[in-house]
């Protein structure tokens, strides 16, 4: 199925109708910010990444804390690294899957390390969704975009094996493939020809300002990452329903803030409940709603990334007064 002009989740509630929420809808956990690619648009190509590897015991502690906080729509194992490089990735998938705390346990991967053994193990571990980010559609594309020699034909065959094994074993895991349109502009037809029958869902995404080659004028962007009309959202909704946990345990309100030092707490040293319901997080949300200078997560000041990563259902702009009242009541407890 080709997906255009929408996010993966078709059943998104209006965020303003459900806030405040007892636990985040989406949790992204970074197993290891090490990658076998050096994509030109990624921090990996700049060498400015934390090489900390998340220990399995620490991962289990994080999942246990999350289990005590609530239930989640999605738990991602992803980050600016390649999660399949982590030696305990199968054990991590198994642990969070067996905890039964999420509607979907996902891995976001470049897919280059897939083989028969790993495919079998991930499916047996209970993976719900494998999202593969392509960096090209030819061997030459991969050499140019991320400096690696990779056989796209072999990559396709490994993905097809994953799906065959999935179907034979009646596993529910979905396979999704995505690529940034800017990587293949003018060759979209070839992309669809090569990959449409390789995955359950396939889509083109769009470069966002934080991973674009240059600092283009924001007005040049007319569509979001997902191809939808941008609109002009003023209030960042991401901190209200997401949590991002780096391999060193630091907790952030969004994916782009993880590149900076300011964090909400540490999921290895602290209880995640105290971070999500803590005063630092509440203060951040109220400062965003009131359009005040954010004092603890300084990356939020002047950030426009949320406009390219959000959907109309997430817009909070017309509900500011009501939400301020609700979060001020929470802060008084």
TrEMBL record:
Keywords: 4Fe-4S, Iron, Iron-sulfur, Metal-binding, S-adenosyl-L-methionine. Its cofactor is [4Fe-4S] cluster. GO terms for molecular function: catalytic activity; iron-sulfur cluster binding; metal ion binding. CDD domains: Radical_SAM (cd01335), SPASM (cd21109). SUPFAM superfamilies: Radical SAM enzymes (SSF102114). Residues 19-246 form the Radical SAM core domain. The keyword S-adenosyl-L-methionine applies. This is Radical SAM additional 4Fe4S-binding SPASM domain-containing protein. It comes from [Clostridium] aminophilum.
């Amino acid at each position: 199925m080709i997906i255009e002009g929408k996010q993966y989740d078709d059943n998104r509630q209006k965020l303003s109708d459900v806030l405040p929420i007892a636990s985040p809808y989406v949790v992204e956990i970074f197993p290891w910010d090490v990658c076998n690619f050096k994509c030109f648009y990624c921090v990996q190509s700049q060498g400015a990444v934390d090489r900390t590897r998340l220990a399995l015991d620490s991962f289990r502690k994080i999942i246990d804390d999350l289990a005590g906080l609530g239930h989640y729509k999605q738990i991602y194992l992803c980050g600016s690294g390649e999660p399949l490089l982590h030696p305990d990735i199968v054990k991590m998938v198994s642990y969070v899957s067996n905890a039964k705390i999420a509607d979907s346990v996902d891995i976001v991967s470049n897919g280059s390390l897939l083989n028969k053994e790993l495919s079998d193990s991930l499916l047996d571990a209970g993976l719900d969704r494998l999202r593969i980010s392509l960096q090209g559609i030819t061997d030459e594309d991969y050499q140019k975009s991320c400096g690696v020699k990779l056989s796209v034909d072999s990559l396709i065959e490994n993905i097809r094996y994953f799906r065959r094994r999935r179907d034979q074993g009646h596993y529910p895991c979905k396979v999704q493939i995505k690529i940034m349109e800017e990587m293949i502009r003018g060759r979209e037809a070839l992309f669809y020809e090569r990959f449409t029958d390789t995955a359950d869902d396939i889509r083109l995404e769009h470069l966002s300002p934080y991973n674009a080659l240059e600092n283009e004028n924001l007005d040049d962007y007319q569509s979001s990452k997902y191809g939808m009309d941008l609109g002009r959202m003023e209030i960042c909704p991401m901190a209200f329903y997401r949590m991002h946990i780096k391999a060193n345990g630091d907790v952030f309100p969004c994916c782009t803030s993880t590149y900076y030092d300011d964090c909400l707490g540490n999921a290895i040293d602290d209880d995640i409940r105290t971070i999500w319901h803590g005063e630092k997080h509440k203060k951040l949300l109220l400062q965003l709603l009131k359009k005040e200078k954010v004092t603890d997560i300084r990356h939020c000041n002047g950030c426009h990334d949320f406009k390219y990563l959000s959907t109309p259902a997430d817009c909070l702009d017309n509900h500011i007064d009501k939400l301020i009242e609700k979060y001020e009541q929470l802060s008084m407890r």
